[in-house]
Each structure stands twice: as structure tokens, then as C-alpha cells.
Design goal:
The complex is a heterodimer of chains A (600) and B (351). With 600 residues, chain A is α/β, with parallel strands linked by helices. Chain A has four domains: 8-200, Pyruvate-ferredoxin oxidoreductase, PFOR, domain III (Pyruvate-ferredoxin Oxidoreductase, domain 3); 213-396, Rossmann fold (3-Layer(aba) Sandwich), CATH 3.40.50.970; 414-469, no CATH class; 490-599, Rossmann fold (3-Layer(aba) Sandwich). In chain A, strands 11-10-12-13-15-14-21 form a seven-stranded mixed beta sheet, sandwiched between helices. A six-stranded mixed beta sheet of chain A has the order 3-4-2-5-6-7. In chain A, 56% of the residues are buried. Chain B is of the alpha/beta class and 351 residues long. Chain B has twelve helices and 13 strands. Chain B has helices spanning 38-52, 68-71, 90-100, 112-116, 120-129, 173-179, 193-205, 231-237, 287-298, 317-321, 333-336, 339-347, and strands spanning 60-64, 81-84, 105-111, 133-139, 142-143, 149-150, 184-189, 209-215, 238-240, 243-247, 263-266, 272-277, 303-310. In chain B, strands 2-1-3-4-8-7-13-9 form an eight-stranded mixed beta sheet, sandwiched between helices. Chain B has a three-stranded antiparallel beta sheet with strand order 10-12-11. In chain B, strand 11 (263-266) and strand 12 (272-277) form a beta hairpin. The radius of gyration of chain B is 21 Å and the shape is globular. Mean pLDDT of chain B is 91; it is low at 253-260. The chains are: A alpha/beta (600), B alpha/beta (351). Chains A and B meet through strand 9, helix 7, helix 9, helix 10 and strand 17 of A and strand 1, strand 2, helix 3, helix 5 and helix 10 of B.
């Protein structure tokens, strides 16, 4: 065995290479959750294929006592459980790192490296000996390697056992097999290797006010708290779990206590064309309604997003972005829908976008999406992504203020209508250029005909140039007015900064870490994270106040930079793109080197 | 222009419905369709039916897609909200609207291009969902607004105004609807108000999706010799196969139910549809028999009209989903938000 690795506590990364459909997700999740419960900052990234069974899948766990939650690019431990990828997995291990492999079979001599440590556990042999069912033998290999890792990393076995108790409280047989497999791996590692290993865990108290949750679950919860009652969707990776979670929360919280009836209705549409149509219909009729989708769905929804924009109907669309174009890579992450969403649909259209950076923000911005959509009577798109949506993140507990009441915007009821001589749909706008609307089924005086065809401010069909233009001009002013209401950017300044960094969404952990790394090297940088579009004034001010600003985003064509160029008065040569768009999430390592090179 | 307004003046002796409203109170703005367009007759029939049913105008919601037919909701019930949506997308908009408020009477108007080409998928799924709505398909076999292209309902061998012959098989909305499990299927002719009004009234009383295919000749582009959707052709080949009366809840059934084939179907609102003349062995509540009968006779070139099929006790969207009786959009926020304590308790599971 090599012994070159210095002792490192709560600061290392593990990569687990598995075959999908073999039950590894449950073992990997168990490890992640156990580390979280030990109070240690941790992040987990699931890199999985668009497949049900048999293809390679990886899980990365990064432990970092300072709380950096971006992906690591170097691994101290590789759990190599997939013969198909053995070759490249072994290559990715850092020098002096540890390779956990199934020693039931000898390793291919061609793959041996002399600068790493071998941590062989006869997983298949153990499980064949101790378990009877073929499926169980496969599943329990995962729990057995988790047991070996508990020994190697000094994961608290009491914490792990408590987790198993909770998970299998109603399935004693499963609880017993899991405990048995866990102990098999644990004991073998203890008996054959010096455990714990040089990099290991020690309990901390960093997580007492935190939760471990994925963004899609948090988004769905936000929709429940916002008071959404109608949801329409078409299944699509990586957005499906938004609606799965919404359904499950509705089953828990929206069964009427008196009647037992459902105070919600979820429509699984025939396609995304229909899903967005249903949301428009429900919103027109006064319900808070939303859909969840990914880029391919947004492409289809373009048509009716234009209708909702022009007819001024509130709509909430959750876009959990994945890799495009076309089908692209459905299970990989990207921020590739920024421009498409900003200007979705033909003709002159502009939409309100919100960019959450983690599950906690997914919750709050989901609620805010409904308020903005109804306040401005227009589509609002919440641009999450696969990394935020489907990975478990350690985030602050979600706080809820019981005094919250939805902002339903300007809606005239019979009483309101009685006070006016005549209702005119697109006339009498408020200071934000928003007119009052009426709901069907309330009062004949408020009746009007919604149309996507040319209309004047009275809501009446028109082909008269000035009348058409008057409405279009107000729509533009209305969109601009929303800049004051979208979440403000978050700015992190550094003394003596010579340049700026602007980013959005899930890039945040990597950028914050890069900012610290650069600062430690004597290169201070200011950082602004944009959280909404239309851009608040402070965005232009930030760009203007730095000679150069790096725009960090996860797409090929620098979409955020394009949007900044189009929508601010800043010259594009004051911005420099840093792009990562290969489908895996950003690491600080991607940024530091590039920035140092650029400013040298 | 649809913005042209009509003078509101009701004759003092005009008949009033149980709400005290005259037929004029159910009218909309002036039609801008071609003089003699079948669609205008359908509009008149819709006005008549909702007036006779005494539905308060504000409790009606009108929806349409794009096309000549989809313009017509402006021409009836001006006191109702309307939604002229996008081409072929009305069924989805209607599904969402119905989900939000189950208490309104939804009248969808569409055409053969809107429903059978660009919106065929949405129509199919609206039928499958059994949305509680009346869906009037104003069928003229032609695209009027774009000047005379064949639609998907054009019959094989039918000629366009320019003399081209359609070589593709038509999509028949009636047979399609039967296949998809539609719970109310009818066909009528725009020129036959006597038949259409009772069908519309029965459709209003029906709980679920009521498809009414109405052959509605296009006087400008499809009313020539060689067209199978012309006035002449329709008058010659259409056959009232099924004669049905609509009997409102309050009225007593006095029709002579003596014919052997007569069937009375009780509607969920207490009204009755009385089939007083149906062909021998024809049962309007037996989907398989209706389908077989239509297949046989339509293949011979006949256009069979009437309330062809009815299933009065099926579950609509809301029943199938066990949704709150109170419209979802009327539920107070306090009933919808679980609150801070529930959120705290829930988050203990995310640790």
C-alpha cells in the first residue's frame, strides 16, 4: 500500500462508478445523507445516463469543511463498480488516491497504476455467500461497499444504522439484509486495511439549520405554498420529478379535511403544446396554475407563450434545463434555454425570467413566480437546471411567513366593475403599465373576448396601425417595469477588485469558490449573481463600474452575455465569456485557471 | 369587423325566458362572415338553445381556435367571457379553464381545419378526458380564410372550386369520437335549426364532452357542383336517421312513446332526451351498434344526422379526479397553504 496521502479531515472527494439500474443510488444516497447528518458540509452530484438499466452512472461526493459545494475535479477515492468504465475511472483517480474495487476477481494487469492504493473488497463473493436471491446479491453489493467506506472514511455507524431504521421502518426483512451487508463490508475493511484512511470525516456542527433536498422537490413545494391548484405537464427529464413531488405534496396537504375531495387537479397533457394551453385556460379562469418542463418542451410551448404574452394572461413555467439542442443529452445539465425563454414565441415578445441557484431559492422563487405572473399578467419562467433540480443540495431550512398572501394582481370583481362606466380590458393601466382584468363567470359587465389577434386597448379586434402599436408599446414598458420586482442580484465585493464576474443559477458555488481562491492568490474580484430578467439597473451599473467582467455560464453561445449585450447599454467588449457546456456541472477549477490566464 | 355593434332594442312583446331575458340578450356583435355562411345559422341556433335553457350569460364561457368558425363566438352571448385562442389549441385551453372552474357552461366552437388537422390530437384527448363542454365542429370541408384548400374532412372525390379532386380519405369526426369513447355524439346541418336546437339543448344538459358535427357549407369556396359539403349535396344526401326531442326537467313528457324503437334517456340534470324515431335495431346508447350502423350507411354516401349516441352517466374530468365541488379557483388561500408549522415538520424528513 502507498502511504503518500497526508491526513485530510473533512476535505476530499469520492467518485462512485456504477451500472445504472443496480441499486447503487440508494447506497450512494445513504453515504451522502450520513455525512450530512454528521454535520459536515457535503455535496453530491449524480451523473447518470438516459437509460433504465445497464449503462454507466457515476455519483460524486465532495466533503468540504469550508462549505464549498461545487463539483470537485480530482478524486481521492474511486469506487470502481463498473467493468465497462474501469479503464477511465482508474485514470481519473489522483496520484496517491485509493481504488475501491471488487476483489472477487483479479484486476486487469494492464490497468494497474503504481501511484495509487488498492482497496479490494470481495463484494460479489461475500454477497453470494450471505444472500440467496440473485437480485438481492446484486443490490447488497452496493450496501457492502458503503459499509467498507464507513470503515475507511470513519462514517458514524450509529448514524448509518439510524438512517436504515428510518428508511425501512416498515420493511424489516430489507432492514435486516441492509444491516448485514453493511456490516460485511465494514468488517472486511477493518480486518484487512488500516482504517480509517488518511482522508476521513470528523463530526462538525455545520448542518443544524440545514436540509438536504433537491431543487425539483423544493420547486413543487413552493407551488403548493403559492396556492397553485391546477398543474398541467408532459413527462420529460429532468422536470418529471417536479410534478411527481407536487402530486405527492398535494396528496398530503390538499385533501379537503371536510369533504375528502382533492383541492387540486393535475392534468397529464398529450404534449407540451397542450400543457401550456391548459395552464393558460386555468389562469384565464382565475386559478393559480403552472407547468414544468425542459428545453424541448419550451420549444413546443413557444406558440402559446406568445398568446399568453399578448393576451396578458398569467402563466408560470418551470424550466428544468438540460443539454440541447434537439434531444441533446437529457440527463446532463446546461443553462441553454436563457435566450429561448427570454424571447419565446414569434413576433416581439419578452418574458420575465427567474434564476434560482439552489433548492432553497427554487422554493421561494416558485412562490414569487406566481405573484409576478399575476401582478404583471404575463408568463414567468423559472429557469432551474438538472444539477439544481435533481441533485440533493445542503441548503438553509426553508422559512415560511404565515402572513404571506398571494398577490393576485389587478382583478375587478362585481363591486369593482360597479364603480366604472365601462370595462375596457387593456385600458387604464397602473404605474407599472398593467391594466385590470376580469374573470369569467363573475359579471357580464366584465365580459370580453380574449384574442391573440391584433387588438386595441379596449380589447377589440383591430388592424389600425396606431391602435396595434399603442398596445405593443405598453407591453414593452410593462416588461421593463418588472425589473424593479424580480429578485435583486446578489453582489459579493472584494477590496481592490480590478474586474468583475457575473453569473447565474447553478454556477454560483463554483464562482464563489473561485472568487475565494483568486483572492487568496492576491487577485480580488467582485461577483454579481443575477437572479431575474428584465435586468435591474444595478446590473448595468456593475458592468459599467468594472473595466472587464467575466460572464460565467453553462452554454456554448454565451446566452447570458448576449442578453446583457442586447438589454443593457454596455459594450460587449467589456464582457468576456467563461463557458462550460459539456453537460457536467461547473467546478471552481474551470474558472480560476482561465481567469488568471486572461488577466495576466 | 367583429367590433361592429348592434343597436340593442328588444320588441316589447318579445318572448322572455325564465330569467326574463329575450333572445336579443344572448346575441353578440355583428357577424363579419360571408353572406349565407352556414356558420351564422349555427350561431343563431346556439343563441336559441342557450336562451331556451335560460343560462345566465355570465355563466357561459365561449372558446374557439382559429378559422372562420372560431370567429363566431364573438357573434353570440356578448355577456359571456370568450377566448379566441390559437389554431387547434382550444381543447387544451378549455381543459384548463374547466379544471379551474367546474361551474360554468363551456361552449367550444371549432372548424374542420382547427379540429381535424392542426388540432386533431387535442380534440382526441379532450374527448378522452370527457371535458364537460359542448364542442361544435362547424364542418365545411375547406379552408376559407386561406382561400379554398381542402381540409381533412373533404370527401374522397370531392372537387375544389378550382376543380382539383381530393384523393385522400376524410376524417369523420363522428366516427372518430365514437372510437375514442365520446359520451355524446351528434351530427346536424347548419340549415336545419329544427334539428340542431334540440341537439344543442341536450348537449348543454349532458355532463361530459358533447361533440356536435355540423355540416356548414362555405358559400364562397365550397358550395359548387362536385363538392360534397355544398348546400345542395347536403340537402340531397342528409338523412334524419334519429329524431330526438329534448324535454327540460320542468316539462312533463307528453310525446307519444308508442314506436317500438323509442328510447328515453334521463340526463343528469333531470331533463330527458326522447328518441322518438330511430331505425329498427338502432340503439343510441349502444356504441358498437351505432358505429356499425354509421359505417354501413355512410359508406353508401349518406350523411346521417341526429343525436347519434349518448351515454348519460359517465364520469367527467372532475368526477374522474375526485375534485372539490367548490371550483378550484374559488378555494380560499387559507385552504391551500399548509403553513409554517407543516413546513417545519416536513423539513425534518429532509435531514
Amino acid at each position: 500500500m502507498h502511504d503518500v496521502v497526508k491526513t485530510r479531515v473533512n476535505d476530499f472527494a469520492i467518485k462512485l462508478a456504477n451500472v445504472n439500474g443496480t441499486g447503487s443510488a440508494s447506497a450512494n444516497g445513504l453515504l451522502m445523507q450520513a455525512i450530512f447528518r454528521m454535520g459536515i458540509p457535503v455535496c453530491g452530484k449524480n451523473l447518470f445516463p438516459s437509460n433504465i438499466q445497464g449503462l454507466p452512472t457515476w455519483y460524486e461526493i465532495r466533503v468540504n469543511k469550508r462549505g464549498y459545494a461545487a463539483r470537485a475535479l480530482e478524486y481521492d477515492m474511486m469506487v470502481a463498480m463498473n467493468g465497462q468504465t474501469y479503464d477511465r475511472d482508474i485514470k481519473e483517480l489522483r496520484s496517491g488516491g485509493y481504488l475501491l474495487y471488487d476483489s472477487s476477481w483479479p484486476l486487469d494487469p494492464d490497468l494497474l497504476r503504481d501511484d495509487i492504493n488498492y482497496f479490494g473488497i470481495p463484494l460479489a463473493d461475500m454477497c453470494t455467500k450471505h444472500f440467496g436471491e440473485p437480485r438481492e446479491r446484486i443490490l447488497m453489493k452496493n450496501i457492502a461497499y458503503a459499509g467498507a467506506l464507513c470503515a475507511a472514511l470513519d462514517i458514524d455507524m450509529d448514524v448509518v444504522n439510524a438512517l436504515l431504521d428510518e428508511k425501512y421502518s416498515k420493511k424489516k426483512a430489507l432492514r435486516d439484509s441492509n444491516s448485514k451487508a453493511l456490516l460485511l463490508g465494514y468488517q472486511y475493511a477493518k480486518d484487512h486495511y488500516p482504517c480509517p484512511m488518511p482522508f476521513r470525516l470528523e463530526k462538525m456542527d455545520a448542518n443544524s439549520d440545514k436540509i438536504l433536498i433537491d431543487g425539483n422537490t423544493a420547486t413543487a413545494l413552493g407551488c403548493v405554498y403559492a396556492g397553485a391548484t391546477v398543474a398541467a405537464w408532459y413527462p420529460i427529464t429532468p422536470a418529471t420529478s417536479v410534478m411527481d413531488a407536487f402530486k405527492s405534496f398535494c396528496e398530503d396537504y390538499r385533501k379537503d379535511p371536510e369533504t375528502g375531495k382533492n383541492n387540486f387537479l393535475i392534468l397529464q397533457a398529450e404534449d407540451e403544446l397542450a400543457a401550456i394551453g391548459m395552464v393558460i385556460g386555468a389562469s384565464w379562469n382565475g386559478a393559480r396554475s403552472f407547468t414544468s418542463t425542459a428545453g424541448p418542451g419550451i420549444s413546443l410551448m413557444n406558440e402559446l407563450l406568445g398568446l399568453a404574452y399578448y393576451a396578458e394572461i398569467p402563466v408560470v413555467v418551470v424550466d428544468v434545463q438540460r443539454v440541447g439542442p434537439s434531444t441533446g443529452m437529457p440527463t446532463r445539465t446546461q443553462q441553454g434555454d436563457i435566450l429561448e425563454c427570454a424571447y419565446a414565441s414569434h413576433g416581439d415578445t419578452k418574458h420575465i425570467l427567474l434564476f434560482p441557484a439552489d433548492p432553497n431559492e427554487c422554493f421561494h422563487m416558485a412562490v414569487q413566480s406566481f405573484d409576478l405572473a399575476e401582478q404583471f399578467q404575463t408568463p414567468v419562467m423559472l429557469l432551474s437546471d438538472l444539477d439544481i433540480g435533481m441533485n440533493d443540495w445542503v441548503v438553509p431550512r426553508i422559512e415560511w411567513d404565515n402572513s404571506y398572501r398571494p398577490n393576485r394582481g389587478r382583478v375587478l370583481d362585481s363591486e369593482g366593475l360597479a364603480k366604472i362606466a365601462k370595462f375596457q380590458r387593456y385600458n387604464n393601466e397602473d404605474e407599472n403599465f398593467v391594466p385590470a382584468r376580469t374573470l369569467p363567470g363573475v359579471d357580464s359587465k366584465g365580459a370580453y373576448f380574449v384574442r391573440g389577434s391584433g387588438h386595441n386597448k379596449f380589447g377589440v379586434y383591430t388592424e389600425i396601425p396606431a391602435e396595434y402599436q399603442e398596445v405593443m408599446d405598453r407591453l414593452l414598458k410593462k416588461h421593463s417595469a418588472a425589473a424593479k420586482f424580480v429578485p435583486a442580484p446578489i453582489v459579493e465585493k472584494r477590496e481592490g477588485a480590478k474586474f468583475g464576474i457575473i453569473s447565474i443559477g447553478g454556477c454560483d458555488p463554483a464562482v464563489r469558490e473561485a472568487q475565494d481562491v483568486l483572492f487568496a492568490q492576491g487577485v480580488p474580484a467582485d461577483y454579481m449573481r443575477i437572479r431575474g430578467f428584465p435586468f435591474p439597473e444595478s446590473v448595468e451599473e456593475f458592468l459599467a463600474s468594472h473595466p472587464i467582467t467575466f460572464i460565467v455560464e453553462q452554454n456554448r453561445d454565451a446566452q447570458l452575455k448576449s442578453l446583457l449585450t442586447l438589454e443593457t447599454g454596455i459594450a460587449k467588449d467589456k464582457m468576456k465569456s467563461l463557458l462550460l457546456y459539456s453537460g457536467f456541472t461547473l467546478s471552481s477549477g474551470h474558472l480560476v485557471e482561465e481567469i488568471l490566464k486572461e488577466i495576466a | 369587423m367583429p367590433s361592429i355593434t348592434k343597436p340593442i332594442a328588444a320588441h316589447p312583446t318579445a318572448l322572455r325566458n325564465s330569467l326574463g331575458l329575450t333572445v336579443r340578450d344572448y346575441e353578440g356583435s355583428m357577424s363579419t362572415l360571408c353572406a349565407g355562411c352556414g356558420h351564422d345559422s349555427i350561431t343563431a341556433a346556439i343563441i336559441r338553445a342557450v336562451w331556451e335553457q335560460s343560462i345566465p350569460p355570465h355563466l357561459i364561457a365561449k372558446l374557439s381556435g382559429i378559422g372562420c368558425s372560431s370567429k363566431t363566438p364573438t357573434y353570440f352571448v356578448g355577456g359571456a367571457h370568450g377566448f379566441n385562442s390559437a389554431h387547434g389549441r382550444m381543447p387544451a385551453i378549455a381543459a384548463g379553464a374547466i379544471a379551474a372552474n367546474r361551474d360554468l357552461t363551456y361552449i367550444g366552437v371549432s372548424g374542420d381545419g382547427d379540429s381535424l388537422s392542426i388540432g386533431l390530437g387535442q380534440l382526441c384527448h379532450a374527448i378522452r378526458r370527457n371535458l364537460h363542454m359542448i364542442y361544435v365542429l362547424e364542418n365545411n370541408g375547406v379552408y376559407g380564410l386561406t382561400k379554398g384548400q381542402f381540409s381533412a374532412s373533404a370527401d374522397m372525390g370531392s372537387k375544389s372550386k378550382r376543380g382539383e379532386v381530393n384523393r385522400m380519405a376524410p376524417i369523420d369526426p363522428v366516427r372518430l369520437a365514437l372510437t375514442l369513447g365520446a359520451t355524446f355524439v351528434a351530427r346536424s346541418f347548419s340549415g336545419d335549426k329544427e334539428q340542431l336546437v334540440p341537439i344543442l339543448r341536450a348537449a348543454i344538459a349532458h355532463r361530459g364532452f358533447a361533440l356536435i358535427d355540423v355540416v356548414s357549407p362555405c358559400v364562397t369556396f365550397n358550395d359548387h357542383p362536385g363538392s360534397t359539403k355544398s348546400y345542395l349535396h347536403t340537402r340531397r344526401f342528409s338523412q334524419h336517421m334519429i329524431e330526438a326531442d329534448f324535454v327540460p326537467k320542468a316539462d312533463e313528457i307528453v310525446a307519444n312513446i308508442t314506436d317500438a324503437g323509442t328510447t328515453a334517456v334521463k340526463m343528469h340534470d333531470g331533463s330527458t332526451v326522447l328518441f322518438r324515431s330511430v331505425p329498427k335495431d338502432y340503439d343510441p346508447t349502444d356504441r358498437a351498434k351505432v358505429s356499425a350502423y354509421l359505417d354501413q350507411h355512410q359508406n353508401e354516401g349518406q350523411v346521417l344526422t341526429g343525436l347519434l349516441y349518448i351515454e348519460s352517466d359517465s364520469a367527467d374530468l372532475h368526477q374522474a379526479n375526485d375534485t372539490s365541488e367548490t371550483p378550484l379557483r374559488d378555494l380560499p388561500y387559507e385552504k391551500l397553504c399548509p403553513g409554517a408549522d407543516a413546513l417545519n415538520a416536513l423539513q425534518n424528513e429532509y435531514r
